[in-house]
Design brief:
The strands form two sheets. A six-stranded mixed β-sheet has the order 5-4-3-2-1-12. The protein has a six-stranded mixed β-sheet with strand order 6-7-8-9-10-11, covered by helices on one side. The N and C termini lie far apart (54 Å). The chain is an alpha/beta fold. Helix 1 packs parallel to helix 3 (64-76). It is built from six helices and twelve strands. The chain has one domain (2-253): Nitrilase/N-carbamoyl-D-aminoacid amidohydrolase (4-Layer Sandwich), CATH 3.60.110.10. The longest helix is centred in the N-terminal third of the chain and has 17 residues, at 15-31. This is Hydrolase. One of its GO terms (molecular function) is hydrolase activity. Belongs to the carbon-nitrogen hydrolase superfamily. NIT1/NIT2 family.
């Protein structure tokens, strides 16, 4: 089994302040016995609406901010997963990137967000380049295999299913989930749905107000929320058990009953909603 934590805070444009908040929550998670703490998307630098600041603030995956997070992981002997905006040489945009560091400060895994948030009046793709849909982010920790995806990815069941097919028993979803009509309900609903349909744990780490909707949560393989943080900054800690996943999959072998395969590829064009069709 592995003790895990979700860390919730509101990141801003001051990277040092964000690092200080992340360090304090990492210390709390380690003191509570967590072997992994997951932080939100854009933990390094965040604004409520993307602008040119995301380009100016971007860093490489071995840059100063990532180096400091790796040092935190090593200092507290804990795995740390968080989101950053990564420089892309030769690109006018950045990557929305997740990094996971191990308890020795080594890089365990990385992921570049595939589904960009061009919805509800936002246009993430104006500033962010999409990742490779063939890239899967997985890593092992204390007998469980984890897989990661980012924020808007939660609305796409295909990615979660591909991770389940890769042997993942727990999904981690860092997010800066924007507020809006029904958005908090969507967040809770989709987190539970992805857990149930893949019979996995799901750790959803969101930013809280003013940059996010909060409501970070850990959901078990039957869709039951087992730990969470409401509106304020803080952590939630719980234990994940491989046998819980195995027991649920014995009782509910839906993954074995599948009749369709998920493969990456370009979406089919949508039919024209207008005209006489």
């Amino acid at each position: 089994m592995v003790c895990v934590a979700v860390g919730q805070f509101s990141a801003g444009t001051d990277k040092q302040a964000n690092l200080t908040a992340l360090a304090a929550l990492t210390e709390q998670a380690a003191a509570a016995g967590a072997g992994l703490v997951a932080f939100p998307e854009y933990s390094m630098y965040a604004t409520r609406a993307l602008d040119a600041g995301i380009l100016d603030s971007a860093e490489p995956v071995d840059g100063p901010f990532a180096t400091k997070v790796a040092e935190l992981a090593a200092r507290y002997r804990i795995r740390v997963l968080y989101g950053m905006n990564e420089t892309l040489p030769g690109e006018r945009r950045v990557s929305n990137t997740l990094l996971a560091f191990g308890p020795d400060g080594d890089l365990l895994a990385s992921y570049r967000k595939v589904h960009l948030f061009d919805a509800f009046g936002y246009a993430e793709s104006d500033w962010v380049a999409p990742g490779d849909p063939d890239q899967l982010c997985t890593f092992d920790a204390d007998g469980l295999r984890f897989g990661a995806m980012t924020c808007y990815d939660l609305r796409f069941p295909e990615l979660a299913r591909r991770l389940a097919d890769a042997g993942v028993q727990a999904l981690v979803v860092p997010a800066q989930w924007a507020t809006g009509p029904q958005k908090e309900d969507h967040w809770r609903l989709l987190a539970r749905a992805r857990a149930v349909e893949n019979t996995v744990y799901l750790l959803a780490a969101d930013q809280c107000a003013p940059t996010g909707a909060g409501n970070s949560v850990v959901v078990d393989p039957m869709g039951v929320p087992v730990a969470g943080v409401a509106e304020a900054a803080g952590i939630a800690v719980t234990v994940l058990e491989p046998e819980r996943v195995a027991a649920v999959r014995r009782r509910l072998p839906s993954l074995q009953h599948r009749r369709f395969r998920v493969e990456p590829g370009d979406p089919a064009p949508l039919p024209d909603a207008g005209g006489d069709a």
